[in-house]
Amino acid sequence: MLAVRQRNRLKKQKMNRNLQTFQILISEKLTLRKLSKNDSEEILQLRSDTEINKFLDRKPSKTLEDALNFINSIIENESDELFYWAITKAGEDKPIGTICLFDFLGDLKKCEIGYELLTEYHGQGIMIEAAKKVIEYAIKTLEIKTIDALTHKDNQSSTKLLQKLNFKKLDNIVEDNPNLILFRLTT
Predict the structure, then answer these.
(1) CA 91 to chain centre
(2) Pseudo-torsion of CA 62, 34, 182, 132, nearest 10°?
């Protein structure tokens, strides 16, 4: 068992060495940039919104300090374990959402995608535009072959988004949470 753990750690280290430096991604209407400590108010708004959090298994942020602690944890782990972008409208700096790639498995060229958007921006095509840009980056720059996404079975907006992005619903049961559905994009 110890040998398996060591082998997995080496594979993860190998993947980490192969990860590119963080890139700002620009689309027609959006700029995806690094999260910064100046984003604490918007992150608090995202992570405390009951509508956004109702499908997520996480403790909501209650204070600016909670949001800043979250931002600091992202900044500390970036480029080693994840890529985490603040979604902003082109020409603006205020984040309206976030999108990330994480849980990299180097030997499989696989990762997971996650995202959230302030409710007042839902239904405007923002997340599909951001996700397309991040998926393009994952495939072309990071050479990822498989991207997984987990969504709550009742989160119809996320399910529709993933289907528009050509993710396929898998019948695999998520062991630790039967309310989650696994979607996969294979290139």
Answers:
(1) 22
(2) 130
